[in-house]
Amino acid sequence: MQEAVGFIEFNSVAAGIFTTDAMAKKSEIEVVDSRSVCPGKYIILITGPTGPVDESLQAGIEAGADAVTDHLFLPNVHPQVIPAILAAGPVGELDALGVIETFSIPSCIQAADAASKAAEIRLLEIRLANGLGGKSFVTLTGEIPDVEAAMEAGEEKVKAIGALVRTVTVPRPHPDLSRFIL
Prior knowledge:
The protein is built from five helices and eight strands; from the N terminus they run E-H-E-E-H-E-H-E-H-E-E-H-E. The chain is of the alpha+beta class. It folds into two domains: 3-75, 2-Layer Sandwich (Alpha-Beta Plaits); 81-180, BMC (bacterial microcompartment) domain (Alpha-Beta Plaits). It has a four-stranded antiparallel sheet with strand order 2-3-1-4, sandwiched between helices. It has a four-stranded antiparallel sheet with strand order 6-7-5-8. Helix 1 packs antiparallel against helix 2 (50-64) and helix 4 (105-118) runs antiparallel to helix 5. The protein is globular, with a radius of gyration of 16 Å.
């Protein structure tokens, strides 16, 4: 079965907590993240097989009702996306560095997925909203041509939905920069 990601954003912490329980009880999924974020919102991120994620997401949208402000269903997600959200891997050596900054969490996840499917790059981190006033960003690294291709794919995806803040590519980052990426 294909892995999928489901995401819901709420304007209410209480609704988010209630909905996390409803989603976890609906289907066999993994709750990857369930927490409050800036500015006073709540997010839930789930993963698992496509069918169960879709079922849980629909249950979450229903349970959250008018507190739901945004949501995303992304089937066949690239395997690097969840570890990058969890910032689970070491930064290591940086080749070229790319940054895609977005106005929303779902658009950032979509940009990271598109970028990682477009070229041989390594996702470093997908930062979701906290300390960013609700914005998000993804950092990635790889050879310069691969980073350029990945950045183009991620940027196209986000521009299409009007959620792009800015992108930058750093061809040969100074070695000290890696200490500040994660």
